[in-house]
Amino acid sequence: MARELSTARLAKKICISESSQCYHFEFALDQLDSFPFASGQFISAVATDPAGKQQTRAYSIASAARGNRFDLCVNRVEGGFFSNHLADLTELEPGGTIQIHGPHGHFVLKEPVTDSILIATGTGIAPMRGYLQWLFPEGGPDRSHGRQIWLVYGTRYESDIYYQAEFEALRSRHANFHYLPTLSRAQESWTGLRGYVQEHVTRILAERAAQLGQPWPAPPLDPATPSAEMNFDIYAYICGLNEMVSAVRERLTSLGWHRKQIVFERYD
Ligand SMILES: Cc1cc2nc3c(=O)[nH]c(=O)nc-3n(C[C@H](O)[C@H](O)[C@H](O)COP(=O)(O)OP(=O)(O)OC[C@H]3O[C@@H](n4cnc5c(N)ncnc54)[C@H](O)[C@@H]3O)c2cc1C
Q: Which of 198, 184, 41 is nearest to 126 (CA)?
């Protein structure tokens, strides 16, 4: 059965990194009063390619639910159809619309909120931005309930740290939000973290275990433990390309983490 499509009008488009050709988009669903979704979900975008074939691609929503609007964060993929179709959209009529269906997906925060480590590379930042807008809404109730929230964001160069100013502002307002961008190909002048996300994840978890007086690495859970009795005090949420997601999952598993503590979304 064909899915019901909605028309999303491009309200705003900003190039947030020239070097990696990454764009921030704001869309409005004018025919709807509201577009409810859980932060971290994605929409499916549908368009016809130059050969006349209908193409569908998934895009994580880069915002928390707000009226009939939603944001995307998409980078051009060389030779790819859809990412370039989006990047070439213009706010001016005609042409500034896409067809979408959704929301879809299960890459959402566990509730009640626990300590959480959000790990992303590249446009994998999109659902994390949605989580953070939901956890720490501007002028709204703080839904983090004082839990520790780490955002470990990996990219190659400083110019590819998407939404940096937003996350720094959030860090200055919330002592329990820890923002850790790390560069794999930093210039000498960079004074922040370097290297791959998994190295920093290991360090954060070791420090947390020491602070809480927990054994390190964590002893693996008895495999016979029924799901209902699994009470984890921390979850990891990982989003990006498969290579990074697999590397982080392996690292966490080697540190005694249970697979149910690791929530992930792969883009490829
Ligand atoms: C659940 C889900 C959510 C997604 N959310 C986002 C998002 O928020 N932002 C976003 O930019 N992309 C996202 N993607 C990837 C997106 O769906 C497309 O695959 C991507 O835009 C490339 O589409 P294309 O038609 O331009 O290229 P295609 O011709 O479909 O793909 C070209 C190649 O690029 C690879 N690729 C896919 N994504 C990327 C990427 N980000 N960087 C480099 N190579 C890539 C693919 O594996 C493929 O081999 C998501 C994918 C999934 C499954």
A: 41
- Please, are residues 118 and 148 in contact by the beta-carbon 8 Å criterion? no
In 93-176, beta strands by DSSP E? 97-104, 115-121, 149-155
Weakest mean pLDDT among 127-141, 152-166, 222-236: 222-236
Which helix (H) or strand (E) element contains residue 126? helix 125-135
Is residue 89 within 6 Å of ligand 1 at its C-beta?
no
Q: What is the rounded distance in angstroms from the CA atom of residue 100 to the CA atom of residue 44?
A: 5
Distance 80 CA to ligand 1 centre (A): 8
- End-to-end alpha carbon distance in the chain: 26
pTM comes to: 0.96
Rounded Cα distance, 14 and 30, in Å: 20
Q: What is the tens place of the pLDDT at every residue in 208-225?
A: 999 999 999 988 888 888
Q: Which residue has the tokens 């931005």?
A: 129
* Average pLDDT value for residue range 27-47: 97
State the amino acid at position 61 in one-letter form.
I
Counting from 1 in the atom list of ligand 1, the atom nearest the Cα of 240 is 41
